[in-house]
């Protein structure tokens, strides 16, 4: 029996296949015209149907053949499933496997191993006094001191000297260590270089690498950078894009507005700075080309940002007005309204969606970006700092959490949790 090939016609007389051209128009009554081929095919099918057996025994024979064919097909499918199914060996159900897992002799994932190591490390934490620094030789109170990897220090003072306090930057490279390995302030350090700024200074972070000192500074009027070496220092403002920073037409800005107040900064790479604003916006700023991007919106006003790895950050926020709360901290040891702080982790690789042009974190209708992880059971009496240890997989913010699973660790430091203030002790 000849097989029908699409696009070809078999001539039983010449016993050959002839290709049917799609654009060929055969004359009426031609041997290989479309109508002729269709008529011959119908006649051939009708002739085959005329030879079908019509007796009951023949019908039963055809039915039995079909059933046998289905059984053979089902048997082949079962054999394939049996051959390709992966089964857990009975050895893994042995009771000794659980003992090996507890002893650490059985292989585990990286996240599980890091979580176990973190538990061991946290169990040994104790409160110790490592070093006592010399008093600051100045009548000004220190608000923020930051260590630079190149033995540099950025010292800032802001609003701690009263309502009319002097807001300025005091950058200074640390002197070379003496024979005993200690750093001694030189005599000229009593009158350090001071860079006065009209803005309030909220936070700062040092660039992790580089040939010269580079600091990112969050102020009440946007993001600034301080760059320089020894006595040559330059302060420059790094504005965000108008479409990202709520620069609506006709909207009047003021000095301490929530859409311009940067309260948290962190370097995720030598060229990119993460900035957290009072209105819950989190920006990425590239110092190479001056481009910025609104990446996410926190559930509260951003107060702290820490880098967990090259693509994840931990963000802390609170829902208490910052200026009024700082005033209560100076006047009373127990504030009337404790802040509700949310600590969450975000993955920067996810695409930002549903970002509002005018977020209102103090409103109940505020929609925030969905976090990667949330660290629960954290209601501090004060606004604490937070820090991340990527090597140990730990997050410290008055309590100790694991980074992979956001689990709370109980430590011997629980008696100090009520007044705990972290100062980058894990990094």
Automatic annotation (TrEMBL):
It comes from Penicillium diatomitis. The keyword Repeat applies. The keyword Repeat applies. PANTHER family: DDB1 AND CUL4 ASSOCIATED FACTOR 4, DDB1- AND CUL4-ASSOCIATED FACTOR 4-RELATED. GO terms for cellular component: Cul4-RING E3 ubiquitin ligase complex. Keywords: Repeat, WD repeat. This is Uncharacterized protein.
């Amino acid at each position: 029996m000849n097989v029908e090939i699409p696009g070809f016609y078999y001539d039983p007389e010449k016993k050959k296949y002839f290709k049917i051209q799609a654009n060929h128009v055969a004359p009426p009554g031609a041997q290989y015209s479309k109508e002729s081929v269709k008529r011959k095919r119908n006649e051939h099918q009708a002739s085959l149907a005329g030879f079908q057996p019509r007796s009951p025994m023949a019908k039963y024979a055809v039915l039995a053949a079909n059933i046998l064919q289905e059984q053979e097909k089902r048997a082949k499918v079962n054999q394939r499933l049996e051959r390709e199914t992966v089964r857990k060996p009975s050895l893994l159900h042995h009771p000794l496997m659980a003992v090996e897992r507890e002893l650490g002799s059985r292989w585990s994932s990286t996240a599980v191993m890091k979580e176990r190591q973190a538990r061991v490390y946290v169990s040994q934490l104790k409160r110790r006094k490592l070093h006592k620094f010399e008093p600051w030789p100045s009548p000004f109170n220190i608000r923020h001191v930051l260590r630079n990897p190149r033995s540099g220090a950025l010292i800032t003072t802001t609003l701690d000297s009263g309502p009319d306090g002097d807001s300025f930057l005091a950058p200074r490279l640390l002197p070379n260590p003496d024979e005993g390995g200690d750093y001694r302030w030189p005599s000229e350090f009593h009158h350090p270089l001071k860079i006065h700024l009209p803005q309030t200074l909220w936070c700062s972070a040092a660039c992790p690498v580089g040939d010269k000192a580079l600091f990112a500074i969050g102020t009440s009027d946007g993001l600034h950078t301080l760059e320089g070496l020894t006595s040559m220092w330059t302060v420059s403002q790094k504005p965000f894009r108008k479409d990202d920073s709520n620069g609506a037409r006709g909207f009047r800005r003021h000095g301490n507005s929530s859409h311009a107040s940067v309260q948290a900064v962190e370097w995720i790479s030598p060229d990119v700075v993460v900035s957290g604003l009072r209105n819950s916006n989190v920006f990425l700023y590239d110092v190479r080309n001056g481009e910025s991007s609104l990446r996410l919106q926190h559930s509260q006003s951003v107060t702290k940002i820490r880098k967990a790895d090259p693509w994840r950050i931990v963000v802390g926020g609170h829902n208490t007005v910052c200026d009024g709360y700082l005033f209560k901290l100076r006047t009373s040891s127990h504030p009337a309204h404790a802040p509700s702080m949310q600590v969450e982790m975000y993955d920067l690789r996810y695409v930002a969606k549903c970002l509002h042009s005018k977020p209102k974190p103090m409103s109940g209708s505020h929609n925030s970006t969905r976090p990667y992880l949330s660290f629960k059971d954290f209601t501090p009496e004060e606004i604490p700092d937070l820090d991340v240890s990527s090597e140990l997989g730990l997050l410290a913010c008055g309590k100790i959490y694991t980074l992979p699973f956001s689990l709370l660790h109980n430590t011997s430091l629980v008696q100090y949790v009520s007044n705990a203030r972290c100062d980058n002790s894990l990094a």
